[in-house]
Amino acid sequence: MAFMRLGSKSEAFHREGQTWLCTTGLVSDVTIEVGDMKFHLHKFPLLSRSGLLEKLIEESSPDDGSVCVLSLDEIPGGGKTFELVTKFCYGVKIELTAFNVVSLRCAAEYLEMNGNYGEGNLVGMTETFLNEVFGNWTDSIKALQTCEEVIDYAEDLHIISRCVDSLAIKACADSSLFNWPVGGGKNVTSERNTDDESHLWNGISASGKMLQPTGEDWWFDDASFLTLPLFKRLITAIEGRGMKLENIAMAVMYYTRKHVPLMNRQVTMDEQVIETPTPSEAEQKAALEEIVGLLPSKKGVNPTKFLLRLLQTAMVLHASQSSRENLERRIGNQLDQAALVDLLIPNMGYSETLYDVECVLRMIEQFVSSSEQAGIVPSPCIIEEGHLVKDGSDLLTPTTLVATLVDGYLAEVAPDVNLKLAKFEAIAAAIPDYARPLDDGVYHAIDVYLKAHPWITDSEREHICRLMNCQKLSLEASTHAAQNERLPLRVIVQVLFFEQLRLRTSISGWFFVSENLDNTENPNGGNGGLLKPRGETVRERVSELEKECMHMKQDLQKLVRSKRSWKNFTRKLNFKKKSECCKPKDQATPAI
User: Fold this and answer.
1) Which family, according to UniProt (predicted)?
2) What stretches of 44-141 adopt beta strand conformation (E)?
3) Element (H or E) spanning 6, and its range?
4) Domain CATH code at residue 128
5) How far apart are CA 332 and CA 312, in angstroms?
6) What is the total count of domains within the chain?
7) Which of 74, 89, 199, 588 lies in disulfide reach of 45, CB 3.0 to 4.6 Å?
């Protein structure tokens, strides 16, 4: 730690309550009031060092020779700093430290204690020491913290900008190449008799104690002790010097968890809760709104989990609408990186739903909009079950992830009896059709909704089922849907039809393969002894498919017997005529 002792005389003052008395033996001829404190001093030591005091003493000295009384309520640093100034004027030893040099420098400027009033005056002394402070990370942090007490004067003297620049240079450099001490923020709190902090970030022990900071995050903890305005200036300076945006985002996250402790109520057991004195909700709200604007704007730099947690906290604190919209937009742009559990945001508004579905819908719409603006809109195509089309599969990945996420979200919120059908449909329809390779997820969500809302009308059931494409259901989902009594009969018929169509296609494909094998590998006729096992395998598979088709026919017949309206639906869909085309070449399937 940098320090400097000035002066050589022994202690020449003593304090009585709020009064400071000089012990030189001479009668005091000037009294200076600084707030509640009074200093009984002598004119000559003061006016010989200070231009301001010289002028004030000259203007205020009474003609009768009585004690001159001055008021210096506006002196930077108050009575504590003026005490050090007074000692300096009397030649008493004072110690310059990173804690007092800023206020002393500002007070010296205010009192005009420059070279015109003696060589080695306080302005020059404090400037020299400040330059030493700026060469040390820990002392620079301490000095910057004290600028808050004399913010206007420190700004005018460019102390804040010089201090911030020195910190930014060090934060962007490799600390292992220099012998810079770290952990200055902790030293500040210990020297000011505050409680030690317990942190969890990179470099933590199993007991939760902070180890020596390492890597690129070594400066996060020190910076988190700064007030928000100073922290913003430091982050801006660091970003201007080219630090990776990921590191800046991590620093802002660290700061947020410390100064917006309401976020920590949502932290899981394996995450850190940073213990600090709890600020009021109004203070947390103001801090959160500032922090939102401080986060890097580049997509994907800020973890989506953190943004969602910050959004939920903003709702609890009733942060400004612009802050919430900013967070929703950021989250929507990278919604493919979100986890389902983080989307289950409790409803803080006047809606009766358990979760804030309106907020999630806006984020989904933002994702789709940003994807379309970026040109990530593949042409519609039919996707075979079990795999994606190779061409454009990379482009499909983000939208497919979001589609899966949304389907899972719908299944989670569907049991809410207060969730309106129109809102469910709006969320499901917000995802474009090409984003879902299979519709199993949306089918499951629809089924959960129908089960939780048995009172909806038949027309509403028909309407909600239009959200899924029966042709894009997997075999497992189709089997379930065919036996699902909650679905309208028209949907069940569609499911069975497309399943039969799929079976017909599979059977035709196997016959095609079998004929090609016979023609290619046995061109001269013969008995094909070597190919017989392959042919038998093909025929066995065809037989299995035919059995599956027969079972589906039997299920369909059960539905015919149980639902009187069956004939009307089959005539309307002309299903019997279409089903006849599903018969294999060598065996006719019984008509329905």
Assistant:
1) Belongs to the NPH3 family.
2) 68-71, 94-97
3) strand 3-6
4) 3.30.710.10
5) 14
6) 1
7) 89
